[in-house]
Write a structure and sequence with these properties.
- The termini are far apart.
- The chain folds into five domains: 3-68; 74-137, Beta Barrel (OB fold (Dihydrolipoamide Acetyltransferase, E2P)); 143-222, OB fold (Dihydrolipoamide Acetyltransferase, E2P) (Beta Barrel), CATH 2.40.50; 231-476 and 553-605, no CATH class; 623-709, Beta Barrel (OB fold (Dihydrolipoamide Acetyltransferase, E2P)), CATH 2.40.50.
- Helices cover 31% and strands 27% of the residues.
- It is an alpha+beta fold.
- Strand 23 (420-424) and strand 24 (430-435) form a beta hairpin.
- The strands form ten sheets. A five-stranded antiparallel β-sheet has the order 6-5-4-7-8, with no helix packed on it. It has a five-stranded mixed beta barrel with strand order 9-10-11-13-12.
């Protein structure tokens, strides 16, 4: 009997056990006992069978409890809300989200895991309709909003709409010292009826609504994030010694006499990578990518490790960093600061003249950084400025150019999206917005890090080739092929601009690069880059290696940033364990870690984008009535989106503000057409707009048109 048949047989057995008492739920441990599946291999089979039944909607699993799904119209998923209060339930395995009318959302809040019943509809809808039956698990342990006083002796919390989709009331005894007009975090005390407000209890005060600190802390709270570490975590970090014991150095490759340097932003403090380069007698180069050895300091199961795992990533807001590790570790003990001995995990790569990998080693080392460079300083050296380390910098620069060219020849995609940077005053208010300039010095570091990340992933493949594949589960950074339907939609949007492709070729990296090359240097460059990026699959973490489509790599992992990314911590631990012939992670563990780390990464990206949008809104709030040049970056029935040229800030012109004509949406050309005048607004058009209004709470910007600019 094949393995596939055995699994199918096991699934049938599980369904029979559940059918004995179909109204009851059974814990996964009970199946293990009943079927005597105690070994790791059998336990893995059981978990795989249960997951398969769940994906097929035959059973529902929640926190280890398994229940027979007797009604296949009853599904489980996560609910999110739009600004109108309509819910959308994301169900694993369904292509379309389920749409829930505001009156059918029950007691659900944004992010909750809910049980829904799919409703029958007469006509085919894009999103099938559903009704919430039950809330299985709250999506957040706390929420954020602004405290307001009512006429009676009660208070209302106006929830930030990204945090919760309803307002709350709070009793005077539960104010926790909060004052009217303050931003607060709070938890849900009780909620018995959809028609009544839920009751809240205030947890903390973030500051007066509208102040910089309150706004930034609100962004964190909206995304379920907390900046401060617990006393226990801080205590563990403070107990770690900066001084390295000689016995530790004796067990490592001592690289302190070699030239090593770091390259980072001017305001960075968490230096987690350093470089070295040597010319070998055979004419090859030996590139060393030295990475802070975080796993030497944080032990599995410690409070420090559990908190790092929970956060999974550092978060870079406009005016502050929310570290994954306490600053004692991220900025001092682990940071590869100049003129200090530091422990590293190093990937040494020998490369020939064609930038091909000839040999490699992955070793625990101790280094002593000679120089802390900024990107700007390195760029000056690459442009010809003299420096004591000019030879080493230029050797790495030349190698990086070859690696970059080789990567694009082999199928990498060259995305380039601008990043706005804000000049803030003492109050945290934006005085100026500029676009970050991308230097080749940035590319230099990127190529060296990509090279090391690829090498460690290929190292695991070499181990697998010499043994059984299952002996070396690994933690990959994967990027699946893009959805051809989404790419086709991008092509439809750019077709009116005279850009066209063979639909059968569009999902190839060469075709995507050709599209990006066609718009390079034009006003459409960043817009098409953004549209194409959104059409791509999202890169995630997983033990199931699908390769990395965007980079053109068959094997890829994150190894180079363990100070700010927990996946890199996992990769370091796996590499060290395999070097000692040990196994520390099971495949299912890595799958769960992959889901968790990918989800936390998305939360971090959302928070970072929210902080950028907030500062853009604050900046334009001081420029109401002023005119700016922009490009139409999106068109829909209710209006057009315009991205301002100089500050890369997007706002909306509502269709009602397009005066002197009635405009209707033309889906084929993705444009708004004037019925009487024939005036046309479409993607890529240059336009002069005036800032009409801003809403800092919703982080929205409204423009009105001044005039289109003829090309």
């Amino acid at each position: 009997m094949s393995q596939k048949d055995r699994i199918s047989s096991l699934q049938e057995t599980l369904l029979q056990l559940l059918s004995i008492h179909p109204e009851k739920k059974i814990h996964e441990n009970e199946f293990q006992k009943t079927l005597e599946m105690y070994s790791k291999k059998e336990s893995k089979r059981l978990q795989k069978a249960l997951n398969s039944l769940s994906n097929k909607q035959r059973v529902r699993i929640h926190q280890g409890w398994v229940r027979l799904n007797q009604d296949h119209s009853v599904l489980q998923g996560r609910i999110e809300f739009n600004q109108r209060g309509t819910g959308f339930v994301i169900v694993q395995g369904l292509d379309e989200d389920l749409r829930v009318h505001a009156s059918d959302t029950g007691l659900a809040l944004a992010g909750d895991i809910v049980l829904v019943k799919v409703l029958k509809t007469k006509k085919q809808a894009r999103n099938p309709k559903a009704k919430v039956l039950d809330v299985l698990e709250r999506g957040s342990s706390f929420y954020v909003g602004t405290l307001c006083k009512t006429n009676s002796d009660t208070y209302i919390i106006q929830s930030d709409r990204k945090s919760a989709n309803v307002d709350f009331y709070v009793k005077k005894k539960d104010l926790n010292g909060a004052q009217t007009g303050e931003k607060v975090t709070f938890n849900l005390e009780s909620w018995v009826n959809r028609r009544a407000l839920p009751q809240a209890k205030i947890l903390s005060r973030l500051g007066k609504s509208g102040t910089n600190d309150a706004n930034m802390l609100s962004i964190l709270a909206e995304n379920g994030l907390i900046a401060d570490f617990s006393d226990q975590v801080e205590s563990e970090a403070d107990a770690i010694l900066l001084q390295i014991d000689q016995s530790v150095i004796n067990e490592r490759i001592d690289y302190r006499s070699k030239t090593v340097f770091t390259i980072d932003p001017v305001d960075a403090k968490d230096f987690d990578d350093a470089l070295s380069i040597e010319e070998l007698e055979n004419g090859h180069l030996l590139l060393g990518v030295h990475i802070a050895d975080v796993t030497h300091y944080i032990q599995p199961g410690s409070a420090l490790d559990e908190e790092a795992n929970k956060r999974a990533t550092s978060i870079y807001l406009v005016d502050r960093v929310i570290h994954m590790l306490p600053e004692r570790l991220s900025n001092v003990v682990c940071s590869l600061r100049p003129k200090e001995d530091k422990l590293c995990y190093t990937c040494f790569m020998e490369v020939n003249d064609q930038a091909e990998l000839v040999n490699y080693e992955i070793n625990e080392t101790v280094i002593h950084s000679d120089q802390r460079f900024t990107y700007e300083q390195v760029q000056e050296i690459l442009d010809g400025k003299n420096h004591l380390l000019a030879k080493e910098v230029n050797l790495v620069g030349n190698l990086a150019r070859k690696l970059l060219e080789k990567r694009f020849r082999e199928g990498a995609i060259d995305f380039d999206t601008p990043e706005p940077r804000f000049i803030l005053n003492d109050k945290g208010e934006p005085e100026k917005v500029i676009l970050k300039k991308r230097l080749f010095a940035h590319r230099l570091i990127e190529e060296c890090m990509l090279f090391a990340n690829r090498t460690v992933a290929e190292h695991i493949q070499h181990l697998r080739d010499r043994s059984k594949k299952d002996d070396f589960p690994f933690f990959y950074r994967i990027h699946d092929r893009p959805d051809e339907r989404k790419l086709a939609d991008v092509l439809e949007q750019v077709r009116p601009l005279g850009i066209s492709f063979d639909m059968h070729e569009i999902a190839k990296p060469s075709s995507i690069n050709h599209l990006l090359e066609k718009v390079k240097g034009t006003p459409m460059e960043y817009i098409v880059n953004g549209l194409t990026l959104r059409a791509m699959a999202k890169a995630v973490y997983s033990p199931d290696n699908l390769g990395h489509f965007g980079l053109g790599f068959h094997h890829y992992a994150h190894f180079t940033s363990p100070i700010r990314r927990y996946p890199d911590v996992i990769v370091h631990r796996l590499l060290k364990a395999y070097a000692q012939n040990k196994k520390i992670y099971e495949l299912n563990q890595l799958r769960k870690e992959g889901e968790h780390c990918s989800m936390r990464e998305k939360v971090a990206i959302d928070a970072e984008r929210d902080s950028i949008k907030l500062k853009q809104v604050e900046y334009l709030s001081k420029h109401i009535g002023e005119e700016f040049m922009g490009v139409i970056s999106g068109v829909m029935e209710r209006g057009i989106f315009v991205t301002l040229n100089d500050i890369f800030c997007e706002g909306m012109i509502r269709v009602g503000d397009l005066k002197r004509d009635y405009f209707h949406y033309e889906p084929r050309s993705h444009s708004l057409l004037g019925r009487r005048s024939g005036a046309c607004y479409q993607l890529g058009d240059a336009i002069l707009v005036k800032v009409d209004a801003v809403n800092p709470l919703k982080r929205q910007i409204d423009f009105v048109p001044v005039r289109k600019i003829n090309s």
